[in-house]
Write a structure and sequence with these properties.
The complex is a heterodimer of chains A (305) and B (253).
Chain A (H helix, E strand, L loop, with lengths): L4 H21 L8 H23 L19 H26 L4 H23 L11 H21 L4 E2 L2 E2 H25 L9 H5 L6 E6 L7 H6 L8 H26 L5 H22 L10
Chain B lengths: L11 E6 L8 H10 L9 E2 L7 E2 L3 E9 L6 E8 L7 H4 L6 E3 L6 E3 L9 H5 L6 E2 L6 E2 L5 H4 L12 H5 L5 E5 L6 H9 L15 E3 L17 H5 L8 H12 L2
Parallel strand pairs in B: 1-11
Antiparallel strand pairs in B: 1-10, 2-3, 4-5, 6-7, 8-9
The chains are: A mainly alpha (305), B alpha+beta (253).
Chain lengths: 305, 253
């Protein structure tokens, strides 16, 4: 599949934004005062909104985007849109009360945590629902999205929390554990993705053409001499060339470096601000991971080419 | 609404006979011709006369080579357009309600004024039946020539999809699959029409008829037989004076 930059930005950034909102909703202690509340919730909001805005660059007619909130009964993309906005509205109310009174409503926070989690789940289901792309149509796909959103959120929260504490645990330790779990599941996903090929899902050029009952099928002549929307969008092959290198880049930037920073902060028991640098590395690593998520995925349409 | 109808009153679709298609691409061209001036926005091309022409087409013909285990390979021309699936995955993923399946005849259509051009429906379709228009930035797909088949302003003989009407070999047939007596239903029953990628669970309405088996008699060949020998000069039948000369010269070695 064609790895569109706008969609990579959307999934990574809004994942981080909603992940951070989910952590804030749990009531993790943050620096006191309305300004701090404004800046901290601003970070969550900007990440989420930047991601959502990026996704509209992918659209042919962004001016009609409001229509996308209408089909939540059947469409995961529509559900994602609705949940994203509902979460943002709830979060805005939460932040308003937080700034005005210093109070953080427990039940409203909990609702935000649930809604933000549901938003990230809906994002992942846009891809995981597609039977046409066996790589994505796996149970671990939503899990990867949720764990990366959580890792981003916890890392940000740990970097911003006073004394770097998340409840009674050192944030650096919690973030490190989260990172290791998330990447472990992702490595498992990569292993499974290798086995979850089109052929393993039962689709071959023989079933795609129905000619399998006669013999072995291969394309003799493409229907068009140049490119088409289909070949550009769904028979994309350029991104796969450097897959192994990109996997290493994703693991080093997104896992090894942030984990080492977490470990250093935990052992030194100080300097939790450095976790924000770790967050930056994680996001860079996730861009590489998401690029591969798209570039390596094979669509059934490729069987016709 | 992007929910699929429970059932449709009729089930309009195509039968494509792979035994007959000669791969002339006339259906492809006539589809483009009709649909660029009919339903919805024109089917655009970008850089049409340039180095990298690209455009939206609703029907395309692939050509495959099929290699049986114990017979020579054969060539099969394979036209492909929207199959108007009963459980169309492209419809339910649409976030805006632009994609829908009509409850009256089962045709899958796009309301172009509601399409935001997100492209998710094209990702959901296993067959590559949907293409984004490069100029209009909305999703285009086969309409089963909905603006022809019910069109009382054109002669009755033309009230069939453009691809079917134009096919010089009669490889494409249009009809109602909900009627077991219809021409298309009978054809599918008699020839064992098949679904493409049944494992995707899309229940396509369009059916494909496979090429009829090739005659392939077990040829009993003489081990020493050589086709090249047939072409060699042969003077065995020569008679009269020339025959005598021929034999005499042979004897000289």
């Amino acid at each position: 599949m064609h790895p569109a930059i706008s969609v990579i930005f959307f999934t990574v950034l809004s994942g981080a934004g909603y992940g951070f909102m989910a952590v804030l909703g749990l009531g993790v202690a943050m620096p006191e005062g309305p300004l701090a509340a404004f800046v901290i919730s601003g970070i969550a909001g900007v990440l989420a909104v930047a991601g959502l805005l990026a996704s509209t660059f992918h659209l042919g007619h962004p001016e009609r985007a409001l229509l996308a909130f209408s089909q939540w009964r059947t469409s995961w993309l529509s559900r994602e849109g609705v949940l994203a906005v509902v979460t943002l509205v709830l979060f805005a109310i939460y932040v308003f009360i937080w700034m005005a009174t210093g109070e953080r409503y427990f039940f409203l926070g909990l609702l935000i945590t649930i809604a933000a989690t549901a938003t990230v789940f809906a994002t992942s289901m846009i891809y995981a629902q597609l039977k046409t792309v066996p790589h994505w149509h796996m149970r671990q796909t939503p899990l990867c999205y949720l764990l990366f959103a959580a890792a981003s959120g916890v890392l940000l929260a740990a970097g911003l929390a006073p004394d770097g504490m998340i409840f009674t645990m050192p944030g650096s330790l919690l973030a490190m554990m989260e990172l290791l779990i998330a990447w472990a599941v992702k490595v498992l996903w990569w292993q499974n993705a290798k086995k979850t090929t089109l052929a393993a899902s039962g689709s071959t050029v023989e079933t795609a053409t129905g000619l399998g009952e006669i013999g072995k099928v291969r394309l003799l002549e493409s229907p068009h001499s140049g490119e088409s929307y289909l070949t550009k969008e769904m028979v994309h092959v350029i991104g796969r060339k450097h897959a192994d290198k990109l996997r290493m880049i994703a693991l080093v930037l997104g896992c090894v470096i942030p984990v080492l920073i977490c470990l250093a902060v935990f052992l030194a028991n100080t300097g939790s601000m450095w976790l924000l640098l770790a967050f930056g590395f994680l996001i860079a690593g996730l861009f590489a991971e998401r690029w591969l998520f798209f570039a390596e995925a094979k669509h059934t349409v490729s069987l016709y080419y | 609404m992007t929910a699929l109808p429970q059932s449709t009153k009729t089930k309009l679709g195509l039968v494509i006979d792979l035994d007959i298609c000669v791969g002339c691409h006339a259906c492809v061209v006539n589809c483009k011709e009709w649909n660029t001036s009919g339903y919805g926005a024109p089917l655009a091309d970008s850089d049409p006369y340039g180095v990298e022409p690209i455009g939206a087409w609703l029907n395309r013909v692939h050509t495959f080579e099929v290699q049986p285990d114990h017979a020579p390979a054969s060539i099969v021309h394979f036209p492909k357009s929207c199959l108007h699936c009963e459980t169309a995955p492209c419809v339910t993923v649409c976030p805006t309600g632009a994609s829908y399946k009509r409850s009256e005849d089962g045709i899958v259509l796009v309301d172009e004024d509601m399409c935001i051009g997100c492209g998710l429906c094209a990702w959901a379709c296993p067959y590559g039946a949907r293409e984004m228009d490069p100029a209009e930035k909305v999703m285009k797909k086969c309409t089963l020539c909905v603006d022809r088949i019910y069109n009382e302003n054109i002669p009755e003989i033309d009230r069939t999809p453009a691809c079917v009407r134009t096919c010089p070999a009669n490889a494409r047939h249009f009809g109602d699959f909900s009627d077991p007596e219809s021409e298309v239903s009978v054809m599918v029953k008699e020839r064992g029409g098949i679904d493409l990628m049944p494992e995707q669970g899309t229940n396509p309405v369009n059916k494909y008829l496979m090429p009829r088996p090739k005659t392939n008699p077990e040829m009993e060949l003489d081990e020493n037989f050589s086709l090249a020998d047939l072409a060699k000069e042969n003077t065995a039948s020569a008679g009269g004076f020339l025959g005598w000369v021929d034999r005499a010269l042979d004897r000289l070695g």
